[in-house]
Amino acid sequence: MDNKYENYVVTKSHDLIEARQKKPLTLREQKLILMLVSTMQPTDEDFKEYQISIEEYCDLMQIDKRSSYHPIKKTIHEIVGKTVEIPLGEGRYLVTNWLSSIEYIEGEAIMKISFQPKLKPYLLQLKKFTSYRLKYVLSLHSVYSIRLYELVKKWQVTSIEETQKIIELEELRGKMGAIAKSYKRYSQFKQLLNDAIFDLNEKTDVFISFEEIKVGRSVKSLRFKIRENLNTVEVPSIENNDSESLTDNLSELEIEFMKMEEMRLRINEKAKAFSFDDITFFEFYNSLKEIFGKDIEIEFMYLIEYINDPSSEIENPIGFIKYKVKELLQMHQKGGKGSFKSLVASRNKKPVIHKSKQNLPDWFIEAQRKKEIAKAEAEASATRTTTDYNAKMEEIKRKFNS
Fold it and tell me: 387 versus 143: which is more confidently predicted?
């Protein structure tokens, strides 16, 4: 590999990293895309026409230059037709091509490549992203290794301490692009996963392992443990040029998202029977951080504790939280002050039933009357005399007709 790529950095939005590929990119296609992305500056306002020489491409893909025409032509035709499915939240997805065009100039031995404009929000002017050194993915031998590496870098909260991530087996299959029938059996997918992990642990800056989480005898989820690979420790760098301001801006954003992701993981540990995905949690966090400031995690915990209580009878926890967030925002927009603690407390208060029927609606009085009558009949049926039964019924009549 040419040394010019040694310190290049790939920066992609979290949504693009989480994207699914129904027809996954091949290893050569994936590496070409990532090499082009590494030449972008995340602060660019628009895509440019990106150029790569055939010589650089052959070196990158380890292709013999003397027989390079046919492999390059095949890659051009196939990569332009491939799509990516990006999650937008609330059950919405964007399906788009990676590239809009590739111009192959045989006489000049160069390719001119244009990205699909729909991808601009996921590669430029980013606020929620993951960055990593290009050199690590170029050293990997499998497209599955590259996809797993990107996911792991997104999950990794900090390189200093171990990060843990639980993911459902089917979700991981989709995100790694391991959708072929041959990987439907867990034993086959596990072999693919072990091979990818060996590849990452040997050649990249992360060291990972996983544990199986079973329901009965079936493996349903995996718990990944991620830490820094001490064999590749180096001074971190996230820049491709000499721009100090770019480095500073990226570092500040990385710190903020790192803290937010740590918070999400802590909250998910407390939540029972549900969890926040990163997109949903970011939406909540971004809406509420100005209201709660440093207390945002404490406020979230009030909601989590309330939802965890079986007596709360919350059937849709995320929907309930969305409603409470909306309620709180409306309150603050009107100049009022409130918190999740106060909203939950008000929900816990039982309605006061006034003794005077003048303060009660007719339907409520009738419902109470029927309830009392049913109770009296049940009690009367246990008595031995008709006199006792009639006495109880008269008591109910006086109570509701007085």
Answer: 143
